[in-house]
């Protein structure tokens, strides 16, 4: 269902156009996720959920509590309404029955997951929307939630390119199946060494990546190697976008999962990074050599963490959405972050969104850009080292 408001001169009257090269140009069209039907996933090689204090100890799974789902949906709906009032066209996914078991010829799995974080699945680069591979069996069929929206976009915009990365088989050969049995027994330094060496849960059996591990800066795409993105996935993206410079980056986080709460572009020349997960020194130097200021985010607001059934860290605070180069949506309780960003001249729009976190992320995770003004520009003319 497309949800937007407009007059003869508003968003409803504008032709549908797929075009977005970065995360800060003026936003015209977006997908906002839904919390309907989301479940705590059954254990699988890529991920294990363990919430003993919340009624879901390791090995258990099932629907998220109804009251949590309702509160998250209320915040998602209110967020979508605020965007529409600002003249932004909004699409929403079509939920499935995520509590149903799923199967391919290679495996069966007791549950799916949900359709709250569309940013994980879809990547818009220019006039193309690309469906990511995904690396969780519980999320293998999630693309079906977005097919109605993508078909409407394809029909409405004759220039749109609709692509899907090769669907992975996700057999046991794609995972180090004993990874979770041993990783948590390692020291922090040992875990960080594994991250730097990219010796994590995924093997290189096949290309695997989540779209949320890609940060778009015009001609440059930065791909984080993580628990859900392997080197082969990075190589696939590099070959798929031959007109871009596609860079692999690693994290200093012991649990790397998506780049959009770690390395956050704000506008040309300004990038925010998580104060707890400093970027690799060569990446920092590359940005600074190209006259970008790298800003360390303030500590997130003090709040009970993790909230019930949430796998997100407090640094989800940095998972913000740009409406244009001067306007940022920030979770309403992150007052210190809002003040920090305001000091750089941004208008900050506070958005109640804490209830959405347990369903897969923050304001950036919950959205996918379909159209932003602007063109593909080169923000990094000074090349250096592996960049």
Automatic annotation (TrEMBL):
The keyword Transferase applies. Transmembrane segments: none annotated. The active site is at 210, 258, 365 (amidino-cysteine intermediate). It comes from the Bacteria. SUPFAM superfamilies: Pentein. Keywords: Kinase, Serine/threonine-protein kinase, Transferase. One of its GO terms (molecular function) is protein serine/threonine kinase activity. One of its GO terms (biological process) is creatine biosynthetic process. Belongs to the amidinotransferase family. This is Serine/threonine protein kinase.
């Amino acid at each position: 269902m497309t949800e937007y408001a407009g007059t003869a001169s508003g968003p409803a009257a504008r032709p549908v156009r797929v075009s977005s090269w970065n995360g800060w140009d003026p936003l015209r069209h977006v997908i906002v996720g839904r919390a309907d039907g989301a479940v705590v996933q059954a254990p699988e090689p890529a991920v294990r959920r363990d919430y003993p204090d919340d009624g879901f100890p390791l090995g258990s799974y099932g629907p998220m509590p109804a009251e949590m789902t309702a509160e998250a949906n209320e915040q998602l709906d209110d967020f979508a309404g605020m965007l529409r009032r600002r003249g932004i066209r909004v699409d929403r996914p079509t939920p499935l029955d995520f509590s149903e078991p799923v199967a391919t010829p290679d495996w069966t799995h007791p549950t799916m997951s949900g359709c709250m974080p569309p940013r994980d699945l879809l990547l818009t680069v220019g006039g193309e929307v690309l469906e990511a591979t995904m690396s969780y069996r519980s999320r293998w069929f999630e693309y079906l939630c977005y097919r109605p929206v993508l078909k409407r976009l394809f029909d409405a915009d004759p220039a749109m390119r609709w692509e899907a990365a090769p669907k992975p088989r996700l057999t046991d050969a794609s995972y180090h199946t004993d990874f979770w049995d041993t990783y948590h027994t390692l020291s922090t330094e040992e875990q960080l060494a594994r991250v730097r060496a990219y010796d994590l849960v995924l093997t290189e059996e096949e290309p695997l990546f989540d779209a949320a591990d890609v940060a778009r800066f015009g001609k440059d795409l930065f791909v984080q190697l993580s628990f859900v993105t392997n080197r082969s996935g990075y190589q696939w993206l590099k070959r798929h976008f031959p007109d871009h410079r596609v860079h692999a980056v690693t994290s200093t986080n012991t649990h790397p999962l998506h780049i959009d709460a770690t390395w956050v572009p704000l506008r040309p020349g300004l990038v925010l990074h998580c104060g707890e997960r400093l970027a690799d020194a060569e990446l920092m130097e590359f940005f600074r050599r190209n006259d970008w200021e790298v800003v360390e985010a303030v500590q997130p607001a003090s709040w009970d963490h993790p909230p019930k059934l949430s796998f997100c860290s407090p640094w989800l605070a940095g998972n913000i959405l740009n409406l244009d180069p001067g306007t940022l949506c920030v979770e309403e309780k992150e007052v210190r972050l809002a003040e920090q960003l305001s000091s750089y001249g941004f208008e900050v729009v506070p958005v109640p969104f804490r209830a959405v976190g347990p369903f897969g992320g923050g304001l950036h995770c919950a959205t996918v850009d379909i159209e932003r003004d602007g063109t593909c520009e080169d923000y990094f003319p000074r090349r250096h080292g592996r960049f």
